[in-house]
Amino acid sequence: MTQSDSPFPRRRAPLPVEECGAALASRLLSDRWTLLIVREGFYGVTRFDDMRADLGIPRSVLADRLDKLVEAGVFARQPYREEGARTRQAYVLTRAGWKLSLTVLALMQWGDEHLRGGKSSLDVTEKGTGKPLRVALVRDGDDFVRLSQVDYMPRNTGETGK
User: Fold this and answer.
1) Which residues contact 151 (CB under 8 A, 6 or more apart)?
2) Angle, helix 59-71 to helix 32-42, in steps of 10 degrees
3) Are 94 and 73 within 8 A, CB to CB?
4) Molecular function terms in GO for this entry (predicted)?
5) Other C-beta atoms within 10 Å of 100: how many?
6) How far apart, in whole angstroms, are the C-alpha atoms of residue 41 and residue 78?
7) Are 157 and 151 in contact (CB under 8 A)?
8) String of DSSP letters for 67-113
């Protein structure tokens, strides 16, 4: 039985918060600035001053969040130097950072639908075909699965000794 089939809501989450990947990720991505910095990386913006200009973020906040994202392996620093200038650091998404693009796209999709009245300001399409894309759950074989058909079952990993 899925949660949506039950006449009564669950009283407790199926997984302790300390074992939940979403809870761990929320510690890192816990504020608006951090998610927007990841969004900048997703769009290909890599330079500190460009991120700062796009976001209107205070310099100290951007430096702090980038340090945390580099430490977590979401961004990597890459030195660059423009002619006649000192060496600076670019911030490029790592493979782990790129995997957050689905999170950013899901938030964008939700925001467009529920906060922008269904209006999207960005088309997300498949290269080559131009077909629109959206974030969804799929099972092996690329079959779409509706949320009403999803169940959440904790794994017995033995990590907490329970």
Assistant:
1) 1, 2, 3
2) 70
3) yes
4) DNA binding
5) 21
6) 13
7) no
8) HHHHHTTSEEEEEE--TTS--EEEEEE-HHHHHTHHHHHHHHHHHHH
- Tokens read off for 21: 């990947």
Number of Cβ within a 10 Å radius of residue 18 = 9
Domain ranges of the chain: 14-149
The whole-number average pLDDT for the span 97-125 is 92
Alpha helices in the chain (DSSP H): 21-28, 32-42, 48-55, 59-71, 95-99, 101-114
Report how far residue 51's alpha carbon sits from residue 43's, in angstroms, rounded to the nearest whole number: 11
Asked whether 149 and 5 are in contact (CB, 8 A), the reply is: no
Query: Could you read off the pLDDT of 59-91 as tens digits, one per residue?
Result: 999 999 999 999 999 999 999 999 999 999 999
Contacts (Cβ under 8 Å, ≥6 apart) of 23: 17
Beta bridge partners of 80: 88
14-149 is classed CATH 1.10.10.10: yes
